[in-house]
Specification:
- It is a single chain.
- The protein is 29% helix and 15% strand.
- By secondary structure, the protein is of the alpha+beta class.
- Strands 2-1-5-3-4 form a 5-stranded mixed β-sheet, sandwiched between helices.
- A hairpin with a 2-residue loop joins β3 and β4.
- α2 crosses α5.
- The longest helix is centred in the C-terminal third of the chain and has 16 residues.
- The protein is globular.
- Bound molecules: FE2/S2 (inorganic) cluster (FES) (2 copies).
- One FE2/S2 (inorganic) cluster binds next to loops.
Length: 180
Amino acid sequence: MEPTSQQETAHSSVLTLHVNGTPHTLTLDHRTTLLDALREQVGLTGAKKGCDHGQCGACTVLVDGRRANSCLLLAAAHNGAHVTTVEGLADGERLHPVQQAFVARDALQCGYCTPGQICSAVGMLAEAAEGHPSYVTPPEHPPGAPAALTAHEIRERMSGNLCRCGAYPNIVDAIGEVAT
Ligand code: FES
Ligand code: FES
């Protein structure tokens, strides 16, 4: 029988990723990262490859609602996962509030880090609303209560997303605008 693109081998698996609400069944080498699967197999290049080592955050996407560095995830370990990339944040022509704030606050220069910054901010806002503390959350903060997103908190919680252009002040302002 002729091999098909959906056949598994010793080095590859067939898996389904739900990306921005659309299922994609792919045959992937076991070494394929989620970032490479998104960019090269699904065809969504919003998530960027900056370092490919988990150090810059340019590849940040939401996996089952939680932000993650997609360059550090093996796609084969996420069969059935629901992934949201920057392409999936807008509601039709209407930008996500974080996207709108980045535009309004001019929170970018070259834009390479921006998809990761925006996905990370969306995940971070949900984490804060759920009451997850950060390293700088005061110890007296009631457990489980939504965290107040001061500029200090935003900087700490976004510290995994680097911007080589140094657009940090406007990034913090943009996220702060959505948080209030
Ligand atoms: S490309 Fe993933 S953290 Fe830099
Ligand atoms: S806007 Fe250029 S790296 Fe952030």
